[in-house]
């Protein structure tokens, strides 16, 4: 009975996975088919500007454009642009999360620091993030540094609030037992609160990557820097919808791969913390 139930559960899980994958592929196929052929129907594209081929291109043209971008045909090689955007994103995410975790753990441990800084943190956090980008550009100038620093400013708050909540929601009995063993506040911070804060922070890594990438590309759009954002500007200036969609596809794939990598790392950390 036990083995039969296990096999039945495994078969059910495989069937479920197969159905999910089949449905996903069907959705993608239907979407690409409609995208490819609807703009060619003139009475549709004439009525809805959104379906005008000049505005939305087509999957076949986008695939051709991607091939040219990755091979460097047509005068644009995407690798240097992609490297610049990825570097600024990774720096922004890593530094932003690290700074956020440090301050979050400190404020969750020391009540005086928490009560003193909390109003300032809330005030700065309430400001629109995009408002920081022009200030950063004025201070450090356009380029990778501005993109990375802007990303740090956005990701910092994601890391901080998760670390602060994680460090604050430790069962009181755990803290009391640790204190009974003669542990100092610093030891409590290092051995107890940091562990809880890191688990909560790793849960926010996928969101941190998404917001970090968005901030970097937005900064590049405002500055015309050397990253992927500059290719979007170029496509807009030349009214080249195919180039814009090609760049969007690249950004989507990059974001998905980074998020999947973060989720894998998150699963490892969650298993370690159990």
Mean pLDDT: 84
Low-confidence stretches: none
Shape: globular
At CATH level 3, the topology of the largest domain is: MetI-like fold
β content, as a range? under 5%
Oligomer: single chain
In the CATH hierarchy, what is the class of the largest domain? Mainly Alpha
The CATH architecture of the largest domain comes to: Orthogonal Bundle
Q: Report the order of strands and helices.
A: HHHHHHHHHHHHH
How would you characterize the overall build of this protein?
With 274 residues, this protein is mostly helical. It has 2 domains: 2-56; 73-273, MetI-like fold (Orthogonal Bundle). 83% of the residues lie in helices and 0% in strands. It has helices spanning 2-37, 42-45, 53-56, 59-71, 78-109, 111-125, 132-140, 144-168, 172-180, 185-203, 205-223, 228-237, 241-273. α4 packs across α13 (241-273). The chain starts with a helix and ends with a helix.
Keywords for this entry:
single chain, 274 residues, mainly alpha, MetI-like fold, globular
SSE blueprint:
Layout: H1 2-37, H2 42-45, H3 53-56, H4 59-71, H5 78-109, H6 111-125, H7 132-140, H8 144-168, H9 172-180, H10 185-203, H11 205-223, H12 228-237, H13 241-273
Helix pairs in contact: 4-13, 5-6, 5-8, 5-10, 5-11, 5-12, 7-8, 8-10, 8-11, 10-13, 11-12, 11-13, 12-13
Question: Can you summarize this structure?
Answer:
The chain has helices at 2-37, 42-45, 53-56, 59-71, 78-109, 111-125, 132-140, 144-168, 172-180, 185-203, 205-223, 228-237, 241-273.
